[in-house]
Design a protein that fits this description.
single chain; 248 residues; alpha/beta; TIM Barrel; eight-stranded parallel β-sheet; globular
Length: 248
Amino acid sequence: MIDTHAHLDACADPPADLLSRAREVGVDRVITVGTTIESCRAALETAGRDEGVFATLGVHPHEAGGGEAGRMEELRGLLGHERAVAVGETGLDFFRDYASRNAQLRLFEQHLELASGLGKPVVIHTRDADEEVATALAGFAGSVVLHCFSSPRLLPVALERRYYVSFAGNVTFPKADELRAAATQVPADRLLAETDCPYLAPQPRRGRPNEPANVVHTVAALAAARGEDTAELAAQIDRNASVAFSLP
């Protein structure tokens, strides 16, 4: 089983402990995410120490108004690392608006240019910006992963364009019927699962920090919603991740 989106550097426990507990429940691969240049370096360091860990590298849209946005050449260099499998997370967040919308759009476009030039998929963060994200992605020819999918209104675009749709712990919440319904519409070969840890702990672990081991609960919820066997769905998601991120 794989956790396709984890912020290991943001967790309280050391990566080695998190990965050990993950393996105890059958989660043997993790993609850790960098959101600043130093976070990207930390992600690569962890991936370099553990053959089951890979890295997605980007500057988060929350950072678009600060100095991190001016370090894209450094990001380009880091993305050349053999353990760097995707660009992001990138996108737009018009809910928090920690940076101006124009600054976020400029940074998003730079990430898409990087991904196009390097031939890597992009991992997308979108909040209250579905239309703008869809427009920005319209000309992007590479693979797209909609991380922590929480935008059912974006689903028709995702299905039409064959994006990968990744569900996190919020799909397990009691009131998340709309998300679970969306999960039933995603083709089997485009479905992914993640924790987004240490955030969004799934319902059985609510109130505690999230970690890669907890992706088992998300996969179980997806299987139940889709009426599928949990082990078979976990294997399908694992295959999907291998294709989406070109994992060895």
